[in-house]
C-alpha cells in the first residue's frame, strides 16, 4: 500500500486521488483527503490534516470526514472540509460552518461578447467600484432598518423580489430558491441584526469580489448549452457572504455552546470544534439563526447583482433585460444543511457541514433546479485574479463519495500577512493589466497584495481531481476581464 507521511500523520492511499487517515484513538471514523500528490504536498504544510483528524471526534460523524482538493487550515475545522453528522444522535458545530455563513458564489450570464466589452474595461471597473459597496464596515445597496433585516432573515430572496431587487427567474436559479424556511430572526442577536442593517448589498473585504469574466473554453458542450454558456461570452461572478451579521451569529453561538456544553467540549481535541448535541435547545437555536444568516447572504448577493445590472445598463446604454443578464446559479460554500443520504445502506438524516466546500448534486436529484435537473447542478469554482475560474456540474459519484460535495475554489497557499510581505499591490495590479489585460480596482493596495495570483493553489489541478473522481465535472473555464475587491 502506498503511504504518505506528513509529520505525525500517516496517510494510506485508497485509490488514485483518495487518501485516508485510518481510524485510531478517539476518532469515530476515518478521515479522507481528495488530492493529487502535488496538492497533498501543499495541504500538508499547515494544520489541515490535524484539523481534519480532529473533526472525526465530533459525535455522530458518519462514514468519514473529508477534505476537498483545495483544503487548507481554518478555524478548528479545515477550509475544504465536509462532514455528514447524524441529525438525531450527533451534533452541529458552528466552527464546521465558519464565521461567514453562506459565503458563496453566483454567476450571471449575458449575451455580450468579449469584443463588446473591450475598450470599456476601465469605465466598467470604475463604475462597478463606485456602485457596489466594498471594504470593511457599513454601507450597502439597501441601508434599512432592523425590521428590514428581520424580514430578510425570515424570507430570504422573497423579500428581494417583493422590493424590486429581483425577478422570479432569479429565485428559480438559486440554491433552495434563496430561502431557508427555518430562518428565525428571533434567534439572531440584536447586535448581529444591527451589524446587518447597513450592509445588505455589499462585498465586504478579504477574498470577496465581483468579477466580469469571459468564457474562454467549453469542455462539455451539451451541458454548457443547458447552462446557457458559450465561448467568448461575458459573464459576471459575485463572491461574498453574510457580512458582519453572519460573523456575529457564529461568535454568539460559539460562546453559548462553550458555556452550555462544556462536557462535550472537553471530549474534543480542539475547543474551536465546539458543538451542540443534536436535539438540544442550542442546536435548534443555532440552526435557525444560521438559516436566517443564509437567507441574508442570498439577499446580499442578489442586491449586488441588481446593482451590477444597473451599471451594465448605464455603460452599454441598453436595458439589462436586452443584454439577457440572467442568473445562471447561486450556490453556498459555508453551510450546514439537514439532508438525507444513504449511509451503510440506510437513508439517514444528516447535518452536512460544508466549510469551503460546494454542494454538487448530480442529474435527477430533486433539489437540483428544474432547469438543470437533466444535466446536474451547476458548481462555480473561483480561481485567482490571474488564473480564471471554472463552471462544473454535479458528478455522478458525488453522493456516494462526498455527501454530494466538491471544492469551492483554488484554496490559499499563503497567509495574508505573508502575501503582503511578498507582493506589492500596485505591482500586482499593473502586471495583471499590462500582461493579462485584467483590470483590478480595490480599496487598497494591501487588499490586492493579499489576493495576488501567487497566493493561491493551482485551480486547474483542483478541478482536475474533482473531475477525475466524478464528484464535479468540468463544463467551462472563464477568465477575468475586470475585478473589484473590498
UniProtKB/TrEMBL annotation:
Top-level taxon in the UniProt lineage: Archaea
Catalytic residues as annotated in Swiss-Prot or TrEMBL: 408
Free-text function comment from the UniProt entry: Essential for tRNA splicing and maturation. Acts by directly joining spliced tRNA halves to mature-sized tRNAs. Joins RNA with 2',3'-cyclic-phosphate or 3'-phosphate ends to RNA with 5'-hydroxy ends.
Keyword Secreted carried by entry: no
Pfam families from the UniProt entry: RtcB
Manner of cofactor binding, per the entry note: Binds 2 manganese ions per subunit.
Assembly behavior: Monomer.
Residues given in the record as Mn(2+) 2 binding sites: 239, 333
PANTHER family: RNA-SPLICING LIGASE RTCB HOMOLOG
Gene name of the encoded protein: rtcB
GO-annotated molecular function: GTP binding; metal ion binding; RNA ligase (ATP) activity; RNA ligase (GTP) activity
Keyword GTP-binding: yes
Coiled-coil intervals, chain numbering: none
Binding sites annotated in the UniProt record for GMP: 207-211, 333-334, 382-385, 389, 408-411, 485
Similarity comment: Belongs to the RtcB family.
Listed Basic and acidic residues bias regions: 175-193
Taxon lineage: Archaea, Methanobacteriati, Methanobacteriota, Stenosarchaea group, Halobacteria
Signal peptide: none
EC number: 6.5.1.-
Cofactor: Mn(2+)
SUPFAM superfamilies, sorted: Hypothetical protein PH1602
Protein name in the entry: tRNA-splicing ligase RtcB
GO biological process: tRNA splicing, via endonucleolytic cleavage and ligation
Amino acid at each position: 500500500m502506498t503511504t504518505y507521511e506528513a509529520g505525525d500523520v500517516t496517510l494510506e492511499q485508497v485509490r488514485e486521488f483518495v487518501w485516508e487517515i485510518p481510524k485510531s484513538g478517539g476518532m469515530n471514523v476515518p478521515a479522507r483527503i481528495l488530492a493529487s500528490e502535488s496538492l497533498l504536498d501543499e495541504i500538508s504544510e499547515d494544520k489541515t490534516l490535524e484539523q481534519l483528524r480532529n473533526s472525526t471526534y465530533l459525535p455522530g460523524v458518519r462514514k468519514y470526514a473529508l477534505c476537498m482538493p483545495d483544503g487548507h487550515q481554518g478555524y478548528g475545522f479545515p477550509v475544504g472540509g465536509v462532514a455528514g453528522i447524524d441529525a438525531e444522535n450527533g451534533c452541529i458545530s458552528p466552527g464546521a460552518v465558519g464565521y461567514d455563513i453562506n459565503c458563496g458564489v453566483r454567476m450571471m450570464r449575458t449575451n455580450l461578447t468579449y469584443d463588446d466589452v473591450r475598450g470599456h474595461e476601465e469605465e466598467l471597473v470604475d463604475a462597478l467600484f463606485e456602485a457596489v459597496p466594498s471594504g470593511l464596515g457599513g454601507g450597502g445597496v439597501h441601508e434599512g432598518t432592523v425590521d428590514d433585516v428581520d424580514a430578510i432573515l425570515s424570507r430570504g430572496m422573497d423579500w428581494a423580489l417583493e422590493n424590486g431587487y429581483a425577478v422570479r427567474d432569479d429565485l428559480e436559479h438559486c440554491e433552495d430558491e434563496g430561502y431557508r424556511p427555518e430562518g428565525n430572526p428571533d434567534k439572531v442577536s440584536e447586535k448581529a441584526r444591527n451589524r446587518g442593517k447597513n450592509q445588505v448589498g455589499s462585498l465586504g473585504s478579504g477574498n470577496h469580489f465581483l468579477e466580469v469574466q469571459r468564457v474562454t473554453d467549453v469542455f462539455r458542450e451539451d451541458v454548457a448549452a443547458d447552462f446557457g454558456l458559450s465561448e467568448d461570452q461575458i459573464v459576471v461572478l459575485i463572491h461574498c457572504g453574510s457580512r458582519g451579521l453572519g460573523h456575529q451569529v457564529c461568535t454568539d453561538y460559539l460562546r453559548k455552546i462553550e458555556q452550555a456544553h462544556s462536557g462535550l467540549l472537553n471530549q474534543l481535541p480542539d475547543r474551536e470544534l465546539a458543538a451542540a448535541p443534536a436535539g438540544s435547545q442550542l442546536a435548534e437555536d443555532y440552526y435557525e439563526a444560521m438559516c436566517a444568516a443564509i437567507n441574508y447572504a442570498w439577499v446580499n448577493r442578489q442586491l449586488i447583482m441588481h446593482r451590477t445590472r444597473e451599471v451594465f445598463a448605464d455603460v452599454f446604454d441598453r436595458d439589462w433585460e436586452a443584454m439577457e443578464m440572467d442568473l445562471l446559479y447561486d450556490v453556498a460554500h459555508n453551510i450546514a444543511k439537514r439532508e438525507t443520504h444513504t449511509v451503510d445502506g440506510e437513508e439517514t438524516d444528516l447535518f452536512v457541514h460544508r466549510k469551503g466546500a460546494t454542494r454538487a448534486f448530480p442529474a435527477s436529484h430533486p433539489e437540483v433546479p428544474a432547469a438543470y435537473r437533466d444535466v446536474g447542478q451547476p458548481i462555480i469554482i473561483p480561481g485567482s485574479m490571474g488564473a480564471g475560474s471554472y463552471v462544473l456540474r454535479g458528478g455522478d459519484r458525488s453522493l456516494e463519495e462526498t455527501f454530494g460535495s466538491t471544492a469551492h475554489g483554488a484554496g490559499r497557499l499563503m497567509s495574508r500577512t505573508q502575501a503582503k510581505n511578498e507582493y506589492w499591490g500596485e505591482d500586482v495590479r499593473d502586471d495583471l493589466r499590462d500582461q493579462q489585460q485584467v483590470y483590478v480596482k480595490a480599496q487598497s493596495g494591501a487588499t490586492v497584495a493579499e489576493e495576488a495570483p501567487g497566493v493561491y493553489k493551482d485551480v486547474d489541478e483542483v478541478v482536475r481531481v474533482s473531475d477525475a473522481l466524478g464528484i464535479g465535472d468540468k463544463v467551462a473555464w472563464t477568465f477575468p476581464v475586470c475585478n473589484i475587491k473590498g
